[in-house]
Amino acid sequence: MRWKGRRVSTNLEDRRGGGGAKAGGISILGLIVAFVAWKFFGVDPQQAYQATKQVTAGEQVESVGLENPTPQQQEAADFVGTVLADTEDTWQAIFQEQGQNYTPPKLVLFSGVVNSRCGTAQAAMGPFYCPADQKVYIDTSFFKDMRQQMGISGEQNQTELSRQDQAGDFAQAYVIAHEVGHHVQNLLGISSQVQQARSRASQVQGNQLSVRQELQADCLAGVWAHHNQQRTQFLEQGDVQEAMDAAHKIGDDYLQKSATGQVVPDSFTHGTSAQRMQWFQTGLKSGDLNQCDTFNQPV
Ligand SMILES: [Zn+2]
Membrane-crossing residues (predicted)? Predict the structure, then answer.
């Protein structure tokens, strides 16, 4: 995948290296709120303080960039930032064609644990999109694990190409595009419709709705790839196969490995790998949003 030399998004929040941990310290505001809660509402001050810590952690001002990134860390951020910019430019153009304006999401890079408005997430849970704060959360170790699962050692093509170039870069772009697809669903009002329908549905029906929502995000990732290809010619031989492999290999087993946080991960309700590949291809070939109506046709 060709990605160097294009615009890097400014909507990237780099919280790697424990940027989120700062909120774990003593906060005067938290202590005051805890005291008030205890004094006037009879809330156990320790509990109240814990609660305020969580809230302030979710609201904290984001750090921008690592202080001393290694070349690899810088490259990883540049890559993610470039793909994010690609999604911004491409979706802006698609929305404009429909007479609409595209509001891009923020993308938070993190390591370890991260606080979102959807709750606290562990890196091991995999990437997710939080509709409440309109942010995509990606831990960089996920990409490393994904490369390992895909059997990409980085030994092949040992040239001047960067590590990112060797290592399933389009598969990573596909993961980012899938999460941005959830943001597009949010902007189009699809996410809230699904949420409403799920609240009235049985567990089984609810899971089926989730599968359709996930497959639509795959289709939207394909629509993005189609238009991004026209705009930038970024695809190289083997890239699409690479994404298909990723769709096949990153799934339930990875995401279920240690789902212990409060965030509901992008999990086993993704559909089968065959379904995922089919819908990504549908989006990629057509480049047409209307072909991505996974809710009103058999998946
Ligand atoms: Zn998803």
Answer: 21-41
